[in-house]
Specification:
With 197 residues, the protein is of the alpha+beta class. It has one domain: Nuclear Transport Factor 2, Chain: A, CATH 3.10.450. The protein is 36% helix and 30% strand. Strands 1, 2, 3, 4 and 5 form a five-stranded antiparallel beta sheet that branches. Strand 3 and strand 4 form a beta hairpin. Helix 1 packs across helix 5. The longest helix is centred in the middle third of the chain and has 21 residues. It starts with a helix and ends with a strand. The relative contact order is 0.19.
């Protein structure tokens, strides 16, 4: 009995910390303006922020000449959506290649605690997430890109008490990193923090 109470307390703490880290209500909309049409059709997948011409981008381009901030942000948006949905669904196979080992370990603990509590979640995006590249740091052969993400999500939860729906706006800073000399072109999520709206 004590062991069950202890596990329930640990699960509650982990879920609260994850809730506090992975999002909070903010007043700013994820997309300030409709996407603009691009040559060749389609709409802009991300905001092409004019401040991208920073020292960090220049340093990264010197080591990885084909780095394109707009393409990077499009990939970051895809990864963000996959990670959020996979975390909610407990889809470890999808998460593993997208997360740094420490982040995967933290997610695994939170998912296991949620499953032990008999709770399931499903997430959908109410609007297209907005991504802005905040900064890039290159130390040695490791590049780190910090991306500000604003999103509006609907979370459907189900447990022994029934079902619930929660609509929320989130503001987060996601740090992606990769080894620039690696043959693997993918960036891995290495850190998540709450951000100001």
């Amino acid at each position: 009995m004590l062991q069950i109470l202890f596990l329930a307390a640990v699960a509650a703490v982990v879920l609260y910390q994850l809730y506090a880290t992975l999002g909070r209500r903010v007043g700013r909309q994820p997309e300030d303006a409709p996407a603009t049409a691009q040559p060749g059709g389609g709409s802009a997948p991300v905001d092409a922020h004019p401040a991208l011409r920073t020292e960090g981008v220049a340093v990264l381009k010197s080591k990885q000449p084909d780095f394109d901030p707009t393409k990077f942000l499009a990939g970051a948006r895809s990864a963000y959506e996959q990670i959020v949905k996979a975390y909610a669904e407990g889809d470890r196979e999808t998460l593993k290649p997208l997360l740094a080992p420490e982040v995967m370990s933290n997610f695994e603990q939170a998912m296991a605690a949620r499953e032990a509590a008999g709770r399931s979640e499903k997430v959908e995006f109410l609007t297209a997430p907005r991504l802005d590249l905040e900064k890039i740091d290159v130390v040695g052969d490791i590049a780190k890109a910090v991306v500000r993400i604003l999103a509006e999500v609907r979370t459907r939860t189900k447990d022994e008490r029934g079902e619930g729906v929660d609509d929320r706006r989130t503001a987060e800073l996601w740090t992606f990193e990769r080894e620039v000399k690696s043959a693997n072109p993918n960036w891995f999520l290495s850190f998540v923090a709450a951000a100001e709206a």
